[in-house]
Amino acid sequence: MKKENILVIILICICAGGIFLYMNSRQDQPSAASFSANSIDNSLNSLIDWKSFDQGLTLAKDQSKPVFLYFYADWCTFCTKLKKTTFKDKAVLAYLMQNFISIKVDTEKDRQLAADWQVTGLPTLWFLDSEGQKLNAIPGYVDEKNFLLVLKYHFTRAYENQTFQEFVKIQ
User: Fold this and answer.
1) What pLDDT is recorded for position 116?
2) Residue-wise burial string across 97-116, b where 16 or more C-beta atoms lie within 10 A, e elsewhere
């Protein structure tokens, strides 16, 4: 066999191997048919109308709504998990958007605010009344089901006459 033929065969094998690897890596990506459905699901996360701290507190007073205050960082694994799971749940989104003013604080960019709120771990979830008074803090990740219960507990002001455990029992 000539050297040119061997080189052509080697180039064809390299190209075929590259195409094979490329196609296998694309199997984890959404197909064109599922892309629009995934886009809709991904856009749900953007439906949380995150406010800055000062803007959110002002809106909460004006609209007499409680506040959900979320401290996070881009490097935080459980913050990412919260964003990809809990914050994409349709029931959570609907309840949060309808009943709360949501404030998101990047602890890397606003270290002083995080220090003022004594944030020592991430994510940290605070709940405030419409006047900005601290009600409750939850450190760490919370799944969709439990987060929805926490939202309902705070929105209905059940904390005024029962513990969270008592509230969960009657739900």
Assistant:
1) 96
2) eeebbbbebebeeeeebbee
78: domain CATH number is 3.40.30.10
Residues 96 and 143 in one domain: yes
Closest among 46, 48, 44, 58 to 125, alpha carbons compared: 48
Residue with tokens 């439906």: 47
pLDDT value of position 94: 96
Domain that holds residue 112: 47-169
Please report the pLDDT score of residue 7 as a whole number.
52
Q: What is the DSSP letter of 15?
A: H
Q: CB under 8 Å to 125, separation ≥6 — which residues? A: 68, 69, 70, 71, 137, 138, 139, 142, 150
Residue 157, Cβ neighbours under 10 Å: how many? 11
pLDDT, residue 43, reads 47
Please identify every stretch of the chain with a pLDDT value under 50, giving residue numbers as ranges: 13, 15, 18, 20-21, 25-45
Evaluate whether 122 touches 76 at the Cβ level (below 8 Å): yes
